[in-house]
Design a protein that fits this description.
The complex is a heterodimer of chains A (about 280) and B (about 300). With about 280 residues, chain A is mostly helical. Chain A has twelve helices and no strands. In chain A, α5 packs antiparallel against α7. With about 300 residues, chain B is an alpha/beta fold. The relative contact order of chain B is 0.14. Classes of the chains: A mainly alpha (about 280), B alpha/beta (about 300). At the A-B interface, α1 and α4 of A face α2, β6 and α3 of B. Bound molecules: adenosine-5'-triphosphate and magnesium ion. The site of magnesium ion has 4 residues of chain B, from α1.
C-alpha cells in the first residue's frame, strides 16, 4: 500500500473512532463490558465481609480460577464480547446507512477497500480497548479477595502472569474475529437480529459440527487459547458439558493463525462486497 | 483527454422500478441543468455519474475516467447530493476539514481549503457550530462548500438552490457562473425550469426516466415565456405586499394563500419577477420564502414536454 492509502486509513480511523467510542446507540456496550466486573467485585466484597465476620470459607485461588474460566468462556466471550462486537462492528456501515452519511466517504478519492480497512481498525481499537480494560478489571476484582502473599505466589510461581496475558490476548482475538464477522454482516443485513441469531447458534453448535466446519468458527479457536480449561464433571447437564468440552484442541500457534486467517478471509470477502455497494438509503 | 461527461446508452432499474432508461448524453463544460418533475430521474443520473449507484446497462465516462476509479475520479469531481444528512456530531468546519484529510492534503492545506470553501458560501460565522443546528439553507450551503472544497473541475449539484433565500440564491448562482467561467462543468438539477434557465448554457429535460429534450436554452425558453407560472411567497404582511405586485405588468393574478400567511402570484415573466423579488428582499419587507407551486410546475412540464415531443 502506498503512503496516501495509509494516510486515508488514518483519516477514516480519526473520523470513526469518536463515533464508535461515544455513540449514544452504543451505550449498552459499556454496561455489557462492565457487568462481569461488577459481578466479581460483588463476590470479592462478600468474601471479605464473610472473612471479617469470622466465617472463613476460603475459596482457594485454584477454585477461583476455574470459576473465572467458566464465566469468561460462557458469559464474557460468547455473550458480552459477541454482542459488544455486534454493536460496534455492525454499525460501521449499517449505522452510516441509517444516518444517511455513508456517501460522503464514497465521494472521496479513496478506494472502498481502504474505507473498509479504516473502519475495521477503528472498530477493533474501540472494542479491544473497552473489552481488555474490562478483562483486566475483572481479574483485578477476582484477585482482590486474596492477601498479597497469595497473589504474588500465584502471579510468579503458578503461571498467573501468563494466564492474565492469555486472557487479554484471547479478549483481543475475540474482538478481531467477531469484528470481522459482524462488519461483513453489517453490509449484508439491515436487521441485526438475523445475523446475531445465526452466528450465535452456529457458534454454540460448534462442538457437534464435523471437524472441517468446526474451523469456520471464532469460538473454536478461542476455546483452545483459553489458559484454564473447565473441568467437565459427571454431574453437569449434558448440554452444558457439550459446550464445555474441547474435543479437538489445537495448538496455540495454530489457533492464532487459524483465527487470523478466518478473519482475513471474511475481510477479503467484505472487500469484494463493498466495491459493488450502492447507496440506497430509502429501502428499509 | 476528453472534456466531456458521456452517458452511453445508460439504463438504471431499481429492481423493477425504472430509474432512467436509454440515456445518451455528451455534456461539455459550462452550466448544464437537469430539469424535470419529481421522480423523473435527475438524482438517478447524478448518482450514476458519481458511482453511488451502478448502471444496469450502458457505461459512463467522466472526462475520460470510469466511475470505478474513485482515486482519480474524485480528484476532479465534487458532488453535493440531495441527501440532507451529515455525519454525526461535527461542526461545519470539522465536516469539511476531516473529509479533506482523506484527499491526502496535509493539515495546513486542509485547513486552508476548508476555510476558503466556507468563505465562498458565506458561512464563516456558523462554521464552528454543529451542523445539526443549522437551518435548511445553511445545510444546503455547507454541502455546497464541501463539494467545492477540493477544487473540482466537475461540480455536480442536486437541487442546489432549494431552501435558499433570494439574496443567497443570487450569490450562489454567481458562484456557479464563476466556476463555469473557469472552464469547469457545473451540472445542477431543478424541477423548475424558470429557476435555472437564464443561468444555463444547456438544459437537459427529463420526464419519467427519459431524456426528452436537450440543448440550448434559448429555444426552450421562448416556448414557455408566455405560460404563466404560479409562485408562493411566504411573508409577514401578505396584504401589503399584494398591493405592490398589482403594479407589475407581468403579474396576472395575486391571491392570498388560504392560511393567510402567504401570497399566490401568477406571472408570465418569472425571470423578471424573481429579479424584482431580489430587490424587494433588500428593502426588508420580511420575506420568508419564495418558491414555485409544485402542481403548476408539473403542468408547465406537460406543456413543455408535449411541445418538444410533437416536433
Ligand atoms: N432507491 C430507490 N429504490 C427504488 N426506486 C427508486 C430509488 N431511487 C429512485 N427510485 C425511482 O426512480 C425514479 C427516479 O427517481 P429520482 O430520484 O432519480 O428522481 P428525481 O428526478 O431526482 O426526483 P426529485 O425531483 O423528487 O428529486 C422514481 O420513479 C423513483 O421512484
Ligand atoms: Mg432528486
Amino acid at each position: 500500500m502506498n503512503l496516501l492509502r495509509w494516510q486515508q486509513v488514518l483519516g477514516v480511523i480519526r473520523l470513526e473512532i469518536r463515533k464508535t467510542f461515544f455513540a449514544k446507540r452504543g451505550f449498552w456496550i459499556y454496561l455489557l463490558a462492565l457487568a462481569p466486573v461488577g459481578l466479581f467485585l460483588l463476590h470479592t466484597i462478600i468474601e471479605i465481609q464473610l472473612r471479617h465476620m469470622g466465617r472463613t470459607r476460603d475459596a482457594s485461588i485454584g477454585q477461583m480460577s476455574f470459576i473465572y474460566a467458566g464465566i469468561f468462556q460462557f458469559f464474557y466471550l460468547r455473550l458480552a464480547i459477541f454482542f459488544g462486537c455486534l454493536g460496534i462492528f455492525m454499525n460501521l456501515f449499517r449505522g452510516e446507512m441509517l444516518d444517511k452519511s455513508l456517501h460522503f466517504y464514497l465521494l472521496t478519492p479513496m478506494r472502498r477497500e481502504v474505507l473498509l480497512v479504516g473502519k475495521y481498525l477503528a472498530g477493533l481499537i474501540a472494542a479491544s480497548v473497552i473489552f481488555s480494560i474490562s478483562t483486566a478489571l475483572q481479574l483485578a476484582a477476582v484477585l482482590a479477595q486474596f492477601d498479597s502473599a497469595t497473589i504474588s505466589h500465584f502471579l510468579y510461581q503458578s503461571h498467573g502472569l501468563s494466564q492474565i496475558a492469555s486472557y487479554l490476548g484471547v479478549t483481543i482475538l475475540a474482538c478481531l474475529g467477531y469484528g470481522s464477522v459482524f462488519l461483513a454482516a453489517g453490509m449484508l443485513f439491515r436487521n441485526p437480529i438475523i445475523p446475531a441469531a445465526v452466528v450465535l447458534v452456529w457458534e454454540a453448535a460448534n462442538p457437534v459440527l464435523p471437524s472441517i466446519l468446526k474451523k469456520i468458527s471464532v469460538i473454536y479457536y478461542l476455546k483452545s487459547l483459553c489458559p484454564v480449561s473447565i473441568p467437565v464433571d459427571p454431574g453437569m447437564p449434558s448440554l452444558l458439558a457439550l459446550l464445555v468440552s474441547n474435543a479437538e484442541p489445537v495448538a496455540g500457534y495454530l489457533a492464532v493463525t487459524g483465527l487470523l486467517l478466518l478473519s482475513a478471509l471474511i475481510l477479503v470477502a467484505s472487500m469484494k462486497r463493498v466495491r459493488r455497494l450502492e447507496i440506497n438509503y430509502t429501502t428499509e | 483527454m476528453s472534456d466531456r461527461i458521456i452517458f452511453d446508452n445508460v439504463s438504471k432499474f431499481y429492481g423493477d422500478v425504472l430509474g432512467v432508461n436509454r440515456v445518451n448524453l455528451s455534456i461539455p463544460p459550462g452550466i448544464t441543468s437537469l430539469v424535470g418533475p419529481n421522480g423523473s430521474g435527475k438524482t438517478t443520473l447524478m448518482n450514476l455519474m458519481t458511482g453511488l449507484i451502478r448502471p444496469t446497462r450502458g457505461s459512463i465516462q467522466i472526462l475520460g475516467m470510469t466511475i470505478d476509479d474513485p482515486e482519480n475520479l474524485f480528484r476532479v469531481v465534487g458532488y453535493s447530493s440531495q441527501f440532507d444528512s451529515f455525519p454525526k456530531g461535527l461542526s461545519g468546519y470539522e465536516f469539511i476539514y476531516s473529509y479533506l484529510l482523506l484527499y491526502g492534503f496535509d493539515r495546513a492545506q486542509a485547513d486552508e481549503f476548508a476555510w476558503r470553501a466556507i468563505d465562498r458560501v458565506g458561512l464563516r460565522e456558523a462554521a464552528q457550530r454543529k451542523v445539526g443546528g443549522y437551518s435548511k439553507g445553511m445545510r444546503q450551503r455547507i454541502r455546497l462548500a464541501q463539494a467545492i472544497a477540493h477544487n473540482p473541475r466537475v461540480l455536480i449539484l442536486d437541487e442546489p438552490l432549494n431552501g435558499l433565500d433570494p439574496l443567497v440564491r443570487a450569490e450562489t448562482i454567481a458562484l456557479f457562473r464563476s466556476f463555469a467561467g473557469e472552464g469547469c462543468h457545473v451540472i445542477l438539477s431543478s424541477h423548475v425550469l424558470h429557476e435555472v434557465d437564464i443561468i444555463s448554457d444547456q438544459v437537459i429535460l427529463m420526464s419519467a426516466g427519459y431524456v426528452v429534450a436537450e440543448g440550448n436554452i434559448q429555444s426552450v425558453r421562448n416556448e414557455i415565456q408566455d405560460q404563466p407560472m404560479q409562485i408562493l411567497i411566504r411573508c409577514k404582511q401578505p396584504s401589503e405586499l399584494a398591493a405592490r405586485f398589482f403594479e407589475e405588468d407581468d403579474v396576472v393574478e395575486v391571491r392570498l394563500h388560504h392560511d393567510r400567511a402567504g401570497l399566490l402570484v401568477k406571472t408570465t415573466n418569472p425571470t423578471r419577477f424573481y429579479r424584482s423579488m431580489n430587490h424587494l428582499a433588500r428593502t426588508g419587507v420580511g420575506l420568508e420564502s419564495v418558491a414555485p407551486v409544485d402542481d403548476d410546475v408539473n403542468s408547465v412540464y406537460e406543456y413543455l414536454i408535449g411541445e418538444e415531443g410533437s416536433r
